[in-house]
Amino acid sequence: MENVGKIRLHQNAWVVAKLQFTYLDGGKMIHTDGSPGVALGNSVTLDPSEFGVPEGASVSAYIFVVWGNDNHGKEIFTMVHGSPNIADYTLEGTTLGNTLTYNGMKQK
After folding, report:
1. Which domain of life is it from (predicted)?
2. What DSSP character marks residue 106?
3. What is the rounded CA–CA span in Å between residue 88 and residue 6?
4. What's the pTM?
5. What is the pLDDT along the chain (108 residues), one digit of tens a residue?
6. pLDDT in tens, 14-23
7. Which candidate, 2, 5, 1, places its Cα nearest to that of 84?
8. Do 59 and 25 touch, CB atoms closer than 8 A?
9. What secondary structure letter does DSSP report for 36?
10. What is the CA radius of gyration of the chain?
11. d(C-alpha 42, C-alpha 18), whole Å
12. Which residue segments constitute the domains of the chain, with CATH numbers given?
């Protein structure tokens, strides 16, 4: 698994979306809060550790779509606070038909 310090969402869908996170804790999946609503055409970059994801945890992006279908990143990363790596995602589509694309790992 690649280390990640932050996760970025480019919000190109006709929705209001929130970048959130899931992580494993003792085999149990934990869902954390994240950004406020991100409107079409905006981006947000967050450090999952600021939302309770512990150092060394296996973390994934979770996109909460207000009044629509949520989306979960398939990629799993190791949370390393301060890592220069940024997992970069793009959300496209509409409330009921959206897709989350992983654009690869970027650097700060």
Report:
1. Bacteria
2. E
3. 9
4. 0.94
5. 799 999 999 999 999 999 999 999 888 999 999 999 999 999 999 999 999 999 999 999 999 999 999 999 999 999 999 999 999 999 999 988 999 999 999 997
6. 999 999 999 9
7. 5
8. no
9. -
10. 13
11. 11
12. 2-107 (2.60.40)
Q: How far apart are CA 91 and CA 76, in angstroms?
A: 17
What's the CA gap between 29 and 39, in Å, rounded?
27
**DSSP letter for each residue of 59-93:** EEEEEEETTS--EE-S--EEE-TT-SEEEEEEEEE
| Cα–Cα dist 22/15, whole Å | 21
Quickly tell me which residue has 């055409």 as its tokens: 41
Q: In what order do the strands lie in the sheet with 6-13?
A: 42-46, 6-13, 85-93, 98-107
In this structure, the number of other CB atoms found within 10 A of the CB of residue 104 comes to 11
Amino acid 44 reads: V
pLDDT at 55: 95
